[in-house]
Amino acid sequence: MDEHDTLSCLLIEDNVADARLIQYMLDDADGARLTFTQAFALSEALDLLSRDSYDVILLDLSLPDSSGLKTLDSVHRARADIAIVVLTGMDATDVAIGAVQRGAQDYLVKGHGDGQLVKRSILYAVERHRANQRLLLAEAAFRNIDTGLMVTDAAGKVVRVNAAFCRATGYDSADVVGGQPNILKSGVHDPAFYEELWRELRETGAWEGEIWNRRKDGKVYPEWLRINVVRDEGGGIAGYVAIFSDITFRRRAEQELLRQATTDPLTGLANRQLFARLLTSTIEQATRYHRSAALLFIDLDGFKQVNDTAGHAVGDAVLREIATRLRGAVRISDEVARLGGDEFVVILPEVRDREVASSVAEKLLQEVSRPFTPDLDAASLTASIGVAMVPDDGVTYESLLRAADTAMYRAKRTGKNGISFFSGEAAAC
């Protein structure tokens, strides 16, 4: 604050002569200029404070409608955000101490000191109060924010944590203050992860990203973490501030959205979109490592009749049962998907030859034709299966799916309830 600044002052003083003298003294003193608004009684002052704001309040404790420390209490309760300097005729040590204890920044006695002393006291009071207000607001934010906060010194020793940190991690403040942040380490990340974190922190002064930490009860959870270097005025490292949010709910929501986007809602199998990615990946892996893979295209025989005679509810139940049977009949490394309607596909990412693929297809035929429970009227249900091999019948998603589909229709035409391999010319890449 310099002499070119202007501060607004609410002068609460009922004596006109004293008020003029105070203003004259302060105008003549060095330092920031003061503009005055005068209130002659407590009630008038409280009305002004309810409507306007000021940088400082210069308060006489003896007013027509209030006296003593009760006057200060009333003003402080009304506007604790404004610096208060008591300037009164009461020269009593106990009153002065009580005034400072109740929120006054300073206590001055009329006639004891010149205008320069009073102005200096006012300017110091404003600066102290502003600093205290900043600290008070920062402390309130630290305590009440829903985001977890951890403060460490330059050596990494924990200095403070807030309530949100304790709620998220399960640790009390006493558990972590004085220790190292690695109490939260989950074991999910390798040393290289932390080395890169500290490298970026040293070079840029900040690091932000997703990290897995461990709660006091041992549960591992994901959080979004930002760490900032705190530097002093000379540029030295004074400490670190870590701000984090538990993103377990967000991760679950993302996983649910991914599940909905990639899963057939009726059967729980992979849907067409996920199947396309899985098949493309299988072809790429088989081609790169010179392995054989197979695609089985399955179409149910007689399913339309089930829907027509027993209804769509039974039809849906049959499809769910077929999906369960197909999934249970193949290896965990094999993929089963529903393309839509009564069409299913099975990806065999590693098969030695056609005989192995044929053996799996035979097993699937048997699973489909097994009797259903009495409430599912689908006793005559069978399947037609077309088989296409990688790399013989195609090395792209489109060519392999087309080959398996063609083979399936050949199985349909030759009597259904059977298996057919693609026998045409290999599809173009």
TrEMBL record:
PAC domain sequence ranges: 207-259
Molecular-function GO terms, alphabetical: catalytic activity
4-aspartylphosphate found at: 60
Taxonomy, superkingdom: Bacteria
Chain ranges of the Response regulatory domain: 8-125
PANTHER family reported for this sequence: DIGUANYLATE CYCLASE DGCT-RELATED (PTHR46663), SLL0267 PROTEIN (PTHR46663:SF3)
Name of the protein: PAS domain S-box-containing protein/diguanylate cyclase (GGDEF) domain-containing protein
Organism encoding this protein: Rhodospira trueperi
Species classification: Bacteria, Pseudomonadati, Pseudomonadota, Alphaproteobacteria, Rhodospirillales
